[in-house]
Amino acid sequence: MAEGIIKEFGKGAIESFSAGVAPTGFVHPKAIEAMKESGIDISRQNSKPIDIDLLSMMDFIITLCGSADETCPMTPPGIKHLHWPIVDPSGVLDTEEKTMDEFRKVRNELKKRIFLFIQELQYGNRV
After folding, report:
1. CA dist., res. 21 & res. 81, Å (int)
2. Which of 8, 19, 46, 82 could form a disulfide with 50 if both were Cys (CB 3.0 to 4.6 A apart)?
3. Measured between alpha carbons, how far is 118 from 112 in angstroms, rounded to an integer?
4. Measuring CA to CA, how many Å separate 90 from each of 1, 13, 27, 119?
5. pLDDT-derived band of residue 100, with 50, 70 and 90 as boundaries?
6. What percent of the chain has pLDDT over 70?
């Protein structure tokens, strides 16, 4: 979801790459549905492993969800690392509606954080 939001809010000004420490190869159907409700299509995205060479070319690395801060490979020197401890909604096992609500909550939290992050980058504020 974060990759899709950055691509939408960044409109080509920011290049984003998404990867995980335990990629599944697919995007959760509820993530696709939650993003579609916001007008963002992530149905063509996929879950990818971390590419160490690509990682070394980043300006920022933002880790999400629980232990990703500790399990992500060491951040290369000179690259800013931020951690946003957002609950992974794919672990929610509840009714369809409650699970979907968790995906919406995460989508909204990501939108808020990404919007502020982009504003800070554009206006030279502290990131």
Report:
1. 16
2. 19
3. 10
4. 12, 30, 10, 29
5. very high
6. 91
The yes-or-no verdict on residue 43 having pLDDT over 60 is yes
Alpha-carbon 7 to chain mean position: 11
Token pair listed for 47: 């879950």
Burial class from Cβ neighbours inside 10 Å (0-12, 13-18, 19+) for residue 1 reads buried
CB-based contact 104:37 (threshold 8 Å): yes
- Give the dihedral sign, CA 54/89/118/80: negative
Q: Which amino acid is at 19?
A: A
Using the predicted structure, report yes or no on whether residue 104 has a pLDDT greater than 90: yes
CA 44 centroid distance within chain: 15
